[in-house]
Specification:
This protein has about 375 residues and is an alpha+beta fold. The protein folds into three domains: about 100 residues, Beta-Lactamase, CATH 3.30.450.20; about 80 residues, Helix Hairpins (Orthogonal Bundle), CATH 1.10.287; about 150 residues, Histidine kinase-like ATPase, C-terminal domain (Heat Shock Protein 90, 2-Layer Sandwich), CATH 3.30.565. Helices cover about 45% and strands about 25% of the residues. Helix 6 runs parallel beside helix 7. It starts with 18 loop residues before the first helix and ends with a strand.
Length: about 375
């Protein structure tokens, strides 16, 4: 500066201590990052939605719904993944959160997986601010496997109780039953009413059959599992079953793949299952019809033995009770035969599935794991 008079007479400095503000901003940023990491890495599925659209979903949530990338779900309608039976329940919960501005209690619901199967889930939800708008955050846990395990435990406990009860009943019935059958045979030879005696004998035979079913539940049997070709067991079972089918005007159509891997199984028990399922198919068609029996690979782990009849079908309400003791779709059935089938297949690490359509028939799939 050439002229000293151009220098300012004084310089004023104004400063404000923003250390606390910077510390607060840093703490807020770190808190947000921790919260985001907690949400992103959480094993629990988390969804944020507003106005019926999904605004955010964490990787665990996308995986639970069958999507590889969370971006694939963003913007989708939240009801797309809600089971139709739970539409009203979800709507009511959302309405409560919007009007009362508080969380809703833990509740079981059903969601729809991307591939179409149903997911059992526990959910809890609460309103939150998100992206400058009011939204709802949902946490849900897939409990499908837990529900299956609980069902198996209930069935096992039920089976054990039925077995104990069955043993006592069967032994009490058999002794007087033997004496009654013997005297009825003598009465048949001397009575002038053989028709009535024959009817009584028929009902006595039925009582004896029921006691045998009781004992098969109660009596522990020695099992010897061996590697077998299921097609051989099925063919041997059907040789006798087809004779019964002819007398009942039943046509048996077989589609059996002969080039299948071995299955570790107890042969006599599988024969019992096949025979029982075939018998049920025949009895569902009193006027005759066709029973189609297929044996093939179901997937990379299981074979499927499929029995398809042309009977009247079974309602969805009744389907839920199949395999339970003393429940049967037949007028004089006990339900014990099918219960034994479920027990045997479960012990073979397989499963039995029913699909039925009213007026068109019923399909029974028996899945058995094969040796690799």
């Amino acid at each position: 500066v050439e002229n000293m008079n151009d220098w300012p007479l004084c310089i004023a400095f104004v400063y404000r201590d923003i250390t606390s503000r910077k510390q607060a901003e840093t703490a807020l940023k770190e808190s947000e990052e921790r919260y985001r990491s907690l949400i992103e890495l959480s094993p629990e599925a988390i969804i944020v939605h507003s106005e019926g659209k999904i605004d955010y979903i964490n990787p665990a949530g996308a995986k639970a719904l069958g999507c590889k990338n969370p971006q694939d779900v963003l913007g989708a309608c939240v009801y797309q993944f809600v089971h139709p039976d739970y539409y009203d329940v979800v709507k009511q919960r959302i309405y409560r959160m919007k009007t009362e501005n508080k969380s809703v209690d833990l509740q079981e619901e059903k969601f729809i997986h991307k591939d179409g199967h149903t997911i059992d889930a526990e959910t809890i939800a609460f309103p939150i601010p998100y992206m400058e708008k009011q939204a709802i955050q949902v946490l849900f846990r897939d409990i499908t496997e837990r529900k299956k395990t609980e069902k198996l435990l209930r069935e096992s406990a039920q089976l054990s109780l039925v077995g104990q009860l069955a043993a006592g009943i069967a032994h009490e019935i058999r002794n007087p039953l033997t004496a009654v059958k013997g005297f009825m045979q003598l009465l048949k030879e001397t009575s002038g009413q053989p028709y009535y005696v024959e009817m009584i004998n028929h009902e006595l035979d039925r009582i004896e059959l029921i006691t045998d079913e009781f004992l098969s539940l109660a009596k522990p049997q020695a099992k010897t599992y061996k590697d077998k070709h299921v097609q051989d067991i099925l063919e041997n079972t059907l040789k006798l079953a087809e004779v019964q089918g002819i007398t009942e005007k039943i046509h048996v159509k077989k589609e059996i793949d002969l080039h299948l891997p071995l299955v570790l199984c107890e042969e006599n028990q599988l024969k019992q299952v096949f025979s029982n399922i075939f018998k049920n198919a025949v009895e569902s068609m009193p006027s005759g019809g066709t029973v189609t029996i297929q044996l093939k690979r179901f997937n990379q782990e299981n074979l499927v033995i499929r029995f398809r009849d042309e009977g009247p079908g079974i309602t969805q309400e009744r389907m839920q009770h199949l395999g339970k003791p003393f429940y049967s779709t037949k007028e004089k059935g006990t339900g014990l035969g099918l219960m034994v089938c479920y027990k045997i297949i479960r012990e073979h690490r397989g499963e039995i599935n029913f699909v039925s359509e009213l007026g068109k028939g019923t399909t029974v799939d028996i899945l058995l794991p094969f040796k690799k």
